[in-house]
Amino acid sequence: MPRWLRITLISAGSLVVLVIVLWLILALVIRSRKAEILAEISSQLSDRLNGQLTIRDMEPSLVRSFPQISVTLKDVMLKDSLYDRHKHALLDLKEVYVKVHTFALIRKRVSIREVSLENGNIYLFTDTLGYSNGYLLKGKERKDSAKAKTSPVISEFTLTNVKFTLENQQKWKMFRLDVKKLEGRMTTNDSGWQARIEPEILINDMQFNTSKGSYAKDKTLTGPMTLDYSSAHKILSIPQQTIRFNQQPVQLEGAFVFSEAPPAFRLNIKADAIPFKFASTLVTPNISAKLSPIDFEKPLDVVAEIRGHMKFRDTPYVRVSWVVRDNRLTGANVALDKVNFDGAFLNELVPGEGHNDANSRLSIYRFNAEYDSIPVKADTIRVINLQKPVLTGRFRSDFPLVRLSHVLGRHLFNFTSGHASVDLRYAGSWDAKDTVPGELEGSVKIRDGAFTYVPRNMTVTNTSATLDFTQGHLYFKDIHAQSGASKVDMDGSILNILNLYFSAPEKLLLSWNVRSPMINLNEFQSLLGRRAKHQSHAQARQKKHMRARFVRQLDTMLELSTVHMQIDVQKVRYRQFNASSVKADVHMAQDGMRFNKIGLNAAGGQCSSAAPSFSRPKATASMWTQTSGRCR
């Protein structure tokens, strides 16, 4: 072995042995001066904690901080003067590890540089009268200012398996944090201090108002995080950085201004590609309950701004915006594909009226999507007053009628051709369970349509129509249709349709004015027979689909509603019977058909009668013998 290598190894080994010997000597010093050191540590900690601090025992920790020296304080408890009444110690820890400055210890001084709290509780308590044990953290007033300036600074700290609780019964606040691990380092300078922490915290509760519930409940918060404090301006700043809730990255930036009374704060939050369901669990239950019927298949990009003051019952100003691109939206009564829009939420619609649900607005801009392959567009959709949500928007669509077969169900209508244009303005509740009708204005235009009404096996072709929604009523205009050799022109109305469609569709009255050059009643015998009842695979699927309620109500309306028709037909054929100039007032209901009056020309003469009637499905040509009237 070369001489230089041997000398190097011997020197290094001697140095290690020397360090170990010195370290053992320091450990013996600690044991010999145990009471004195414990008293000094208690004194330094008590200078920062204004209360009754008790430490059951102290032991040197020989391995934990080698080659430096640390001691373990056993069963550390800090109590306030009213502990016997409320039973919440501010500190109740099984172990507190204190790292001391080695050279200071040699000079028979104890200088604390690092503290580690493990296995216990920190409990900040305020009762309903405003008394708080938080005064213990203010520290004691130091008469010796010079000594205060030279007091050592704890630059490193660690919490492990510590449950932190802040309970304020007077201001209805409750924070419960299960600190699995938190490592921090603090540096000070003339302008203030900076701290960097590495947290792993399970948020059991984060209730700013216990009547509203918790934010981010049961979420794990991880860092790292950096905090800056300016002593001159009394501002605690949070530089822009990324934190994580359950590993979901969230960018955070903000500040707390303690120079104001009460202290002001602002937070800017940005989350890219965050799942909607996960984002909704970060807010309080009353908000997440309103969002629970909704979900997006792909994650969203969200930006939030929060501003307020740290005072009792102060609800902060909140503005949230998000971007949705090529997504799928599902809700309690809707499923939309290819969804694109920009959204925004604001909880102060009218300045000065407070930050609350009643003064909130949810806005959607540049909306376009597909509802079961039917395109839907809207420039702006708004939901105002989230306490009693009201949705307003103008919806437009142009699509081939064949796409309606799938929407309404082929068991009800089977469209084969035609085109529809929709332009509707809606204002009303967005809650499917709300029975209060909304306001619907606008029109639906159909041209060149052809379909089969399956329950009656009736086929209609060459159809055009305009449906106008006005003040809660539905008006049918310029309807032209053909079924076989029969052609009809119609107009009509359904009054009060928005009130009755969902609540009592059987009470709806369809009023029609029917005009035709010729009607062949032989082609409409299915209307007089029993309505076909069957359930196809598509219908079974419809019952499970979110649009089932609308389709079910449409089916009920068509089957159970009452129809009143004013008929003016130039020619009528029924089997061997032919008539002309037929005019009638017809009432159709579930119990049958009644002619309030009828007049026609047949067999070279004229006939008129009043109040003939017959019941389904027994109507035949013999009905004419049931009438009372006169023919000549």
Structural features, described:
The protein is α+β, with helices and mostly antiparallel strands and 632 residues long. Helix content is 16%, strand content 52%. The protein has a 31-stranded mixed sheet that branches. Strand 23 (473-483) and strand 24 (486-494) form a beta hairpin. Residues 146-151, 536-546 and 616-628 have low confidence and may be disordered.
State the gist of this model:
This protein is an alpha+beta fold and 632 residues long. The protein is 16% helix and 52% strand. The protein contains eleven helices and 31 strands.
Write the layout of secondary structure elements.
Blueprint: H1 3-32, H2 34-48, E1 52-61, E2 69-79, H3 83-86, E3 91-100, H4 102-106, E4 112-126, H5 145-150, E5 156-168, E6 173-189, E7 192-207, E8 219-222, E9 225-230, E10 235-245, E11 248-257, E12 264-274, H6 276-280, H7 285-291, E13 295-296, E14 300-309, E15 317-330, E16 335-346, E17 361-371, E18 374-384, E19 390-400, H8 402-408, E20 413-428, E21 439-453, E22 458-470, E23 473-483, E24 486-494, H9 497-500, E25 509-520, H10 537-544, H11 548-560, E26 562-574, E27 577-589, E28 592-602, E29 605-610, E30 613-614, E31 628-631
